[in-house]
Specification:
By secondary structure, this protein is of the alpha/beta class. The chain is built from 11 helices and 10 strands. Strands 2-1-5-10-9-6-7-8 form an 8-stranded parallel sheet, sandwiched between helices. Helix 2 packs parallel to helix 11 and helix 10 runs parallel beside helix 11.
Length: 302
């Protein structure tokens, strides 16, 4: 089915310290993300890149720490700016496809989108839980706390970004591909009873079974957002990302998952995050990410 897609570049690196992720959106454009989506039959409007009042830099010279969180003001400001764009996209009947940029962008993208749904479901593909708080984070990097904030756990100022209160409900979130969790994240998953599939689960069950369980768990949701971190894949296939963890998924199996997910027709928005061309070789990571995006949006092998 043809989608009316708004392509939204989220050029933020404020959630983590490694330079280059601000170039992710343009790397994906160079890899042909607009062209492949149009070739499938979708209507794509490239809205360009979103900027906040703080200039995004390759390396931030002066990292400010507030409430134990690095670049607090910058992340908050950027999230507000991005939320306005995704809010307007949904309001206009479009499908927001947000390309980043580090995973802290999800605070803005999802906050803007969630206000249009009573029960927005989220499938969170990631090697990490992104469920830390300032008390449990070993680094203070907000990209590792962003899902906790969306669920209403952590700093109230970030929780209240764009809208007051949590943007997501615990029962509406599924995590897939986990293999690097801090103790505080493990505790939160168990305390909140969040449906989470580690890489051990992926290997034991297979992604087809995990997709079936995911869709049953989210059957009550009135919208479905996919937040896809490229570090969910194995570093052998995704070189250009900042927090690589061995033992991840492979492109072929993720394509199978995305092909079947797209067949449900239930996706309403997508984030594609953490592509860092400065850590890449010949833009391979962006090209692989674009390949998977084709299947998210309906490409078929046969």
């Amino acid at each position: 089915m043809t989608k009316q897609i708004d392509l939204i570049g989220a050029t933020t690196n404020f959630g983590q310290p490694k330079p280059g992720v601000v170039l992710g959106p343009d790397a994906l454009r160079i890899a042909g993300i607009v062209q492949v989506l149009e070739a499938i039959g979708h209507d794509v409007s490239d809205l360009g890149n979103v900027y906040g009042k703080y200039q995004t830099q390759f390396v931030k010279d002066n990292v400010q720490v507030k409430n134990g969180l690095k670049n607090y003001d910058e992340v908050k400001d950027y999230s507000e700016a991005l939320a306005k764009v995704t809010d307007a996209s949904v309001q206009n009947g479009r499908f927001p496809l947000v390309i980043g940029g580090d995973h802290s962008l999800a605070l803005g993208s999802i906050t803007g989108i969630a206000k249009h749904y009573d029960n927005l479901g989220v499938i969170w593909f990631d090697a990490h839980g992104d469920l830390n708080t300032s008390e449990t984070s070993p680094s203070g990097n907000i990209h590792g706390m962003i899902l906790a904030e969306l669920l209403g756990v952590g700093d109230k100022g970030l929780i209240d970004t764009y809208n007051e209160g949590p943007s997501l409900k615990t029962e509406n979130v599924v995590l897939i591909g986990l293999r690097d969790l801090d103790d505080g994240e493990k505790e939160l998953i168990k305390k909140r009873n969040i449906l989470a599939f580690t890489m051990s689960d992926v290997r034991a069950l297979g992604l087809v079974e995990i997709l079936d369980r995911t869709m049953k768990h989210l059957a009550h949701c009135d919208g479905l957002h996919l937040s896809f971190d490229v570090d969910s894949l194995d570093p052998s296939e995704m070189i250009g990302t900042g927090t690589k963890v061995p033992g991840g998924m492979f492109i072929a199996e993720v394509i199978m998952f995305m092909e079947r997910l797209s067949e449900t027709g239930l996706l309403t928005s997508v984030d594609l995050v953490e592509v860092n061309p400065l850590l890449d070789t010949f833009n391979q990571t962006a090209e692989n990410a674009v390949l998977m995006t084709e299947y998210i949006f309906g490409k078929r092998k046969l």
